[in-house]
Amino acid sequence: MTQLDDGVPALGRLPSGIAGLDDILRGGFLEGGVYIIQGAPGAGKTVLANEICFRHAAAGGRAGYVTLLAEMHTRLLQHLRPMAFFDESVIPDSLYYVSAFHTLEGDGLKGLIDVLRREIKGQRANLLVVDGLVAAQESAPSDRDFKKFIHELQAHASASGCTVLLLTSGALRTISPEHTMVDGVLELEDQLFEFRTERSLLIRKFRGSGFLRGRHSFRITDDGVKFFPRVEALFASTSRPQVLSDAKIAVGIPGIDKMLLGGLPAATTTGLIGASGIGKTTIGLHFLSASSAAEPGLMFGFFETPERLCVKAKHQDLHVTAAVERGDVEMLWQPQRENVLDELAHRLLEAVRRRKVKRLFIDGLGGFLESAISPQRVSRFFSCLTNELRALGVTTIFTMEVPEITGPVIRVPATGLSPLLENLIFLRFVERGSSLHRLVSVHKVRDSGHDPSLREFFITDRGVHVGEMFSGVEGVTTGVAREPASAAASPQPPTTPDV
Amino acid sequence: MQTILVVDDELGAIEVVATALEDEGYRVLTAANGRHGLEKLAEGQVDLAVIDFMMPLMDGAALGRAMKEDPALRNIPIIMMSAVGESLVRERFSGYTAFLRKPFRISALIDTVRRVLG
């Protein structure tokens, strides 16, 4: 327990031990506090509370789990047994399960408070879960009696330093007397969005501490409960200040690096925008193959498996497999399923931090967009995510696929994103005569000059090569190049690169 | 008629065990915790105690120890029931005659009771 300036001891914390939840709670529950965890049946209250108990016991604490429902502990433990956090060896010395259903039925709230008090004292518990608060509420003769019960429980919890979690399936969004009295209210929901569901947590109240406001997604798997603090809330400020530098990071394609006057500015974010099949991933593989121990690389992809990408790189004489084997590059593939937007961001940032990644290739933006249940979040989400990546010193390339193969308009696949990207590189197909040509142009580069010309590029068995300016034609940006009337008699084809 | 005391804090468990034993012709007493169980034991002749391990106020191990310390109760055989493994139970109390790991089949309960009561 730390001391505040006025000499009053600050309240200690009881970490939940649950991945992500302690970030949301800014360190965990307060010792001796009473908290309501509410949610409809199936929202995840029981699994969450049990995992908190097991994690608490594993960390050396003592916990009691008291049910007020007719549900059998035997059944409960059977359901928990397959989960990774379940450890029978902590029962009963560090984690104790009892039912107070009989007591509540026979002796009412007075008997119940007596049982809870004795369990806290007898088991020397510093964490107590009471599952089925609604049963206590229903057995209370009046609201006044129920408030008195909560008040007494708070007094015992505070005096013994035992944190109490009250689980209830009481209706959400109703303000009951207990809500006004307890130290915090955590609301769990499992919402249906057309065909898919997503679990979320909302902290309604948390006395005596800051917390991350708003909804945060979570998942329940055999590994237990994992929360994904909303990126906009967690990284409203970056985890560290950004260090500005004039350094350049080579893309690894001499022609493009020349257009960028040496490469991409370090710790910036680049949008690589173009149609399907134009070579975005191939350019990214060049970027990754330039990784080293000093500049570790990460491929965060949604579409092609690592194996397929390694084969693709090999066909273009790019040594990505060797870089992976050296540990200079990691490939993380995110199969396109019902991903949670914030889960993806946390997985990405964990991989970046773990290896101190400096070169990040994300293929592509669409994988994130498809995971976003709320499109209105996307711009703020990416703003905070890219800010954090910059603060971590990561130079990032995002691929952004546009629907049009050719045409006069290039639509960025989500509104509000372009301003977040310091650098934009456009790749486009242009029809000339009866064939498609690939063109690259640098649209903007942060605080740096660049070659703004349109250049043709070629994908060969030795990778990407950039040719000369695509000159001698007009209407290139419409997608269909044509000879200028004055030069129609003597067309100038693009120069084939020296491969 | 032999009398069996069933001590368990879970109402569902008590109902299932008591009904099964009554169907077999036993007289059944019930209690919701160890302290309540001791009161029932003091009331009269009990031939067998079927006790849950984890209970509020007084757990199964404490009840078992109290029975072994009381000359009037120490010879009553005990069947200990628990959702956790026997090794964990035995660390706290080993004076029981048989152990049933929850969940168990009624047939396993009846077989164990018959074996213990001879």
Mean pLDDT of chain A: 88
Question: What fraction, in percent, of the residue positions of chain B are helical?
Answer: 40-55%
Structural class of chain A: alpha/beta
Using CB atoms under 8 Å apart, which protein chain pair has the greatest interface? A-B, 26 and 20 residues
Number of domains of chain B: 1
Alpha-carbon Rg of chain B, integer:
13 Å
The appropriate CATH architecture of chain B is 3-Layer(aba) Sandwich
Query: In angstroms, what separates the terminal alpha carbons of chain A?
Result: 68 Å
Please, could you describe this protein's structure?
The complex is a heterodimer of chains A (499) and B (118). Chain A has 15 helices and 22 strands. Chain A is an alpha/beta fold and 499 residues long. Chain A has two domains: 13-229, 3-Layer(aba) Sandwich (Rossmann fold); 248-487, P-loop containing nucleotide triphosphate hydrolases (Rossmann fold). In chain A, the strands form four sheets. Chain A has a nine-stranded mixed β-sheet, with helices on both faces. In chain A, strands 16-15-17-18-14-19-20-21-22 form a nine-stranded mixed β-sheet, sandwiched between helices. Chain A has a two-stranded antiparallel sheet with strand order 1-2. In chain A, strand 9 (196-206) and strand 10 (215-221) form a beta hairpin. In chain A, helix 4 (101-122) runs parallel beside helix 6 (143-160). Chain A is elongated. Helices cover 44% and strands 20% of the residues of chain B. Chain B is of the alpha/beta class. In chain B, strands 2-1-3-4-5 form a five-stranded parallel β-sheet, sandwiched between helices. The longest helix of chain B has 13 residues, at 11-23. Chain B has one domain: Rossmann fold, CATH 3.40.50.
Give a brief rundown of this model.
The complex is a heterodimer of chains A (499) and B (118). By secondary structure, chain A is an alpha/beta fold. Chain A contains 15 helices and 22 strands.
Name some characteristics of this structure.
heterodimer, A: 499 residues, alpha/beta, Rossmann fold, nine-stranded mixed sheet, 15 helices, 30% helix, disordered C terminus, B: 118 residues, globular
